[in-house]
Design a protein that fits this description.
By secondary structure, this protein is α/β, with parallel strands linked by helices. It has 13 helices and nine strands. Helices cover about 50% and strands about 15% of the residues. The strands form two sheets. Strands 1-2-3-4-6-9 form a six-stranded mixed sheet, sandwiched between helices. The longest helix is centred in the N-terminal third of the chain and has 16 residues, at about 35-50. InterPro entries: ClpP/crotonase-like_dom_sf, Enoyl-CoA_hydra/iso, Enoyl-CoA_hydra_C.
Length: about 260
């Protein structure tokens, strides 16, 4: 290996109710190495354990968001490979995070990172960006969770279009098919992310986090009805619902505490 791609690992920053994970390997289109998977899983545990957090932004440095998993990473970094879960496990863990998540897509999204971004609750992209899934072109059979997620989020026809042809899609088409939830000019990206993160941060956390879990379960065809009803009961008896109703009557902004 001529260059140590273990350098510049992802970082985690926490500021008030917002956490930000940023990919920093821009010279390699922010490809994900085995050691990055270990670090990201640790970050996810840290975020879930912090009850003051209300939203996570996943961002990246450089012109591209990410080229996905480095297929040669396990051969090049055997020590990390021995400790790292699979890329699919990291993606599933990201989807299961307690708080709402936003992907800040400042550029191209490729390979496994198309699935990583798809697991976010919101994806804000920019005009001029592109996305493609090159599995068929590389001879890679994608993992079951990613195939299922593409179908449940984007529909069967779109999933086949993306997986079986490796077609490259531009920003406007990504918005049309629902891959992007928001599309803005590059100069407006950070303001759009901040605006959405601010909106999510002031919502009632018990309700938001409970409904996120239920909606993801519904998307996978695996809703735990009893657990969903129990979360609804807890919300109904919470101080947050009393605060929400009081704020509505007083025509003021509510201050939720997640209890």
């Amino acid at each position: 290996m001529t260059e140590d791609t273990r350098l510049d690992p992802p970082s985690l920053e926490i500021s008030g109710p917002r956490a930000t994970i940023r990919l920093h390997r821009s010279r390699h289109r922010n490809r994900v190495e085995p050691g990055d998977i270990v670090r990201m899983m640790e970050y996810f545990d840290t975020i879930d354990a912090n009850k003051d957090l209300r939203v996570l932004v996943l961002a990246a440095s450089g012109p591209a968001f990410s080229a996905g998993f480095h297929l040669g990473g396990f051969a090049e970094d055997k020590e990390a490979a021995a400790r790292a879960p699979g890329f699919d496990a990291m993606v599933d863990r990201f989807e299961a995070l307690r708080i709402p998540t936003i992907c800040r897509l400042q550029g191209g999204v490729y390979g496994g990172s198309t699935d990583l971004a798809l697991t976010a609750d919101f994806r804000i992209g920019v005009t001029g960006m592109e996305m493609f899934m090159p599995a068929a072109r590389l001879g890679v059979h994608y993992y079951p969770g990613g195939l299922r997620r593409y179908v449940s989020r984007l529909g069967m026809n779109t999933a086949k279009r993306l997986f079986l042809t490796a077609e490259k899609l531009g920003a406007e088409e990504l918005l049309r098919i629902g891959y992007l939830t928001h599309l803005v000019a590059p100069a407006e990206l950070d303001a759009a992310v901040d605006r959405l993160a601010g909106t999510l941060a002031v919502m009632a956390p018990l309700a938001v986090q409970g409904m996120k879990r239920a909606l993801n379960e519904i998307g996978h065809g695996a809703l735990d009805v009893a657990a969903c009803e129990e979360r609804a009961r807890i919300c109904k008896e919470s101080a947050d619902i009393q605060e929400g109703l009081a704020a509505f009557r007083a025509k003021r902004a509510p201050v939720f505490r997640g209890a």
